[in-house]
Amino acid sequence: MATFVTRAQWGALAPLEVSGTITPQQGGVVIHHVDAVKVAEAHHTDCAAQVRSIQNFHMDANGWSDIAYSHLACVHGSLFEGRGEYVRTAAQGTTQGNDDWYAVCALTGGTGGDYDVITPELIDAIRYGITRLRSSGGAAPAITGHRDHHSTTCPGNVYAHVVTGAVNPGGGPLPYPGVSFRQPPSLAHASVATWQLRMNSAHGYSLTVDGRYGPGSDAACRGFQSRKALTVDGVVGPATWNAAFAPS
Ligand SMILES: [Zn+2]
Ligand SMILES: [Zn+2]
Questions:
Q1: How many angstroms separate the alpha carbon of residue 122 from the centre of ligand 2?
Q2: Is the pLDDT of residue 39 over 80?
Q3: C-alpha torsion angle, residues 100, 104, 110, 115 (rounded to 10)
Q4: Domain boundaries, position 81
Q5: What is the pLDDT of residues 144-175, one digit of tens each?
């Protein structure tokens, strides 16, 4: 079980102002990492100072009211309290993202194959952050990566753990994300990639796992719906999602 580190315990500055309201029942939780360079601390005794430096950067350089994230997770298995539940974030790079989604940041980084190691303790801390945001903050079930919302490589090598559902608090497949997928595709969405993986691994399809609900996904969806005697509409709603993830 992850260790929770309160703002007082890590020495947070008070927010400059109270951020606006958030409607996380319409979104969920977005996963981030810190940077495109490796940042994970070797020793946990250095992690609180790292979180303080991120807060200073967000407040002094970016001019934000507080550290951008709802919570931050370190590779040693601690979850540092960020803005917390029911506070709008500044992390997602889009207004809609900040209005509807919480942000959990892994204290890791890297790019181009040179990444911090993702530890089981980090995954556990991310799961704990998502659990808090759901149980105390009203977050919808969806879990996405920053790159699903905005042009960025964030969250680097953590993204694979979003796609597989490893960061899902219950483990295993992600629950129905609360949004339906249909043509024409909107933004790429980690849950679409999760569904594509499942269609390939459990139902014999050969979809490109790109998180985009394109014509190939639409055709596979319609064929699957026909086989399962579901309404054939090409829309991955709750019934089609749950049929895809039912034990076979
Ligand atoms: Zn990010
Ligand atoms: Zn640590």
A1: 9
A2: yes
A3: -130
A4: 3-163
A5: 888 877 788 999 999 889 877 899 998 766 67
